[in-house]
Amino acid sequence: MFQGKLRFGAMMIFSALSLVCGPSCAHAQAQAWPQRSVKVIVPLGPGAGVDISARLLADGLAPRWGQSVVVENRPGGDGVVAITAFAGAQDDHTLLMSPTSSFTHHPWLYDKLPYDPLDLVPIARVSNTIVAIVVPSSSPINSLAELMTMARA
To answer: How far, in Å, are 1, 80, 83, 132, 148 from residue 116 at the CA level?
Structure first.
């Protein structure tokens, strides 16, 4: 199990390096693509931040590519449902747009997955996500430490 996780980590590093080192090769191959409609699978429901970003990108890419770009939401199962659908598609016109947390933690959380994490190669960072912990303004909590103390009690 550990070797698989180590291999997955090495694959993630290699993928990041290939983004930096190989753009000219990727550009040469991408010129004839897409040949038909593109499907973008999103592991979250409609209205989620990733869904909105995917739809904005689809609206901009469709006229540029001269092909339709369809966003398909596949929420549930900690992202495993969408990732399994993507991996099973084995189609170069099906993409996955997902927070990296939807798949990078799977090898550490699950002993058995319905997909091989090594089949996933991140190719682009689309956005940054800011996560905040908030309480109602009427709450007596003024810090994360106070929230933790209250939660432990």
So the answer is: 13, 11, 10, 32, 37
Question: pTM of this prediction?
Answer: 0.67
Which of these ranges, 3-12, 62-71, 81-90, 107-116, has the smallest mean pLDDT?
3-12
Burial of 115 (0-12, 13-18, 19+ CB in 10 A): middle
Question: Helix axis angle, 23-30 relative to 2-21, nearest 10°?
Answer: 80
CATH of domain 2-152: 3.40.190
Name the pLDDT band for 15 (thresholds 50, 70, 90). Answer: very low
Sign of torsion, CA 36 41 45 51?
negative
CB burial of residue 31 (10 Å; 0-12, 13-18, 19+): exposed
| Ordered DSSP codes for 90-133 | --TTEEE---THHHHTHHHH-S--SS-GGG--------------
